[in-house]
Design goal:
It comes from Pseudonocardia xishanensis. This protein is an alpha/beta fold. The protein is built from 5 helices and 5 strands; from the N terminus they run E-H-E-H-H-E-H-E-H-E. It has a 5-stranded parallel β-sheet, sandwiched between helices. Helix 1 packs across helix 3 and helix 4 runs parallel beside helix 5.
């Protein structure tokens, strides 16, 4: 059952602090304002994988806190004084899997075309590509305004 069948719709948007994820958040908020939907902004985090000995400070880094700060900053910078209802959530796990789980019963999933990882020249990042091919709901991939 989708959100349209049980009240206002639900739009899940992935946020990682990148420019394209902020554009995705802006797009999701505008769509929610136009349709009366609720926005569920999600950021996933996991301890970075390294090869070789891991520096001890990396083990004790507050990754959840860093993710929460990134999400809060994106919301402050993007929402301003908009009245749209936004639920913000920090979830441990890889970005693609976290977003797919969050969007399992959503009406729409919105992601930026590229996050902080990968190669700058790619037109579509690995997370955007993964969720676009595996999500149970429609997916909107939003490009950064400065992308070609």
């Amino acid at each position: 059952m989708t959100g349209a069948e049980h009240g206002p719709g639900r739009i899940v948007v992935g946020v990682d602090g990148s420019r394209s994820s902020r554009e995705a958040l802006r797009w999701a908020v505008r769509q929610a304002e136009a349709t009366g939907a609720h926005v569920h902004a999600v950021i996933g985090w996991s301890i970075p994988v390294t090869y070789g000995p891991m520096p001890v400070p990396q083990l004790w880094t507050d990754w959840s806190g860093i993710a929460r700060s990134t999400l809060d900053e994106a919301l402050r910078a993007t929402l301003g004084d908009r009245a749209c209802e936004v639920k913000a959530e920090v979830v441990e796990g890889g970005a693609a899997l976290v977003l797919l789980e969050a969007a399992r019963d959503a009406d729409l999933l919105v992601v930026g075309s590229r996050g902080h990882g990968g190669f700058a020249g790619l037109l579509l990042g690995s997370v955007a590509q993964h969720v676009a091919t595996h999500a149970r709901c429609p997916v909107v991939v939003v490009h950064d305004r400065e992308e070609p």
